[in-house]
Amino acid sequence: MVFVRRLLLSWVLCILSSPLLAQAFTLEGQVRNARTNQPVPFATLGIIGRNIGTVADEEGRYILRFPAAPTDSLVITSVGFFRAAVSPQALLNGQREFALLPLEQALPDVVVERKPVHPALLGRNKEKGDVLWTAGSSGKETVDDEWGWELGTVLMPKHPAYLDALHVYLATNTYEQLRFRLNLYTLENGRPGRTLLSQDIQLTTTNRQRGWIQLDLSSYDIRLEAQPVVATIQWLQSEKTEPWDKYFSIPVLRQSKQTMVERENSQAVWSIHAMQPSLYFTVLMEVDKR
């Protein structure tokens, strides 16, 4: 089995190719709710199209490291909020506190009765693969600049379905604590498009947990239509101690169809792979009575 240290490799290449390392630029501040002034936990920060980003902690506090002074706008996002963009000049002038405006949450007027359903599965439920797709801070002195990484797969429900549980297989894991966010996107031109979830749904692990990690989704009432959708897990947090020896991996199987998606942070460019990760959903799929 091939062991791919995806993020470590990209970091090494960045270090070797960057002549501006001596001009490193660091932002440290907080993301807050524009209406309540309360912290926005686990907000994501990134530069569009570049592998520069991070995730704020429970108190909305963040550290974002640039290889050089910023020349592009910083984008801040969080589930349930409008995105915000901050110009590079504002960053150079010292702006470190960012405010996100919450989205209006409309209450549904009509309760739709569910049709008959049956148990089904979407995704890949195998523990083995021919590649271990690995993320982490192994070999580095920091980990927060790796937060925001996403990995996922294209789902193809044949009929409308309700998500019952998420299952992700960790083949290796040296972190005492990991936190992920579940994201769902439309599929547009073969890549993730518009985000679909309005709730911040998170999965956590402790004590270097490995094997199948499960998250109960039955209470969220998430309904997928009978059309392609992209599901990802986004790395939000892990402990900062001894980052140079920390990583986790997910088995991946090579295949002919390009169904696995990945990006380095919330604003980076998506890459598409002819692979499928060990990630699946148990669902309740509507019965086709035709």
From TrEMBL:
<keyword id="KW-0645">Protease</keyword>
<feature type="signal peptide">
    <location>
        <begin position="1"/>
        <end position="24"/>
    </location>
</feature>
<keyword id="KW-0121">Carboxypeptidase</keyword>
<dbReference type="Pfam" id="PF13715">
    <property type="entry name" value="CarbopepD_reg_2"/>
</dbReference>
<dbReference type="InterPro" id="IPR008969">
    <property type="entry name" value="CarboxyPept-like_regulatory"/>
</dbReference>
<keyword id="KW-0732">Signal</keyword>
<keyword id="KW-0378">Hydrolase</keyword>
<protein>
    <submittedName>
        <fullName>Carboxypeptidase-like regulatory domain-containing protein</fullName>
    </submittedName>
</protein>
<dbReference type="GO" id="GO:0004180">
    <property type="term" value="F:carboxypeptidase activity"/>
</dbReference>
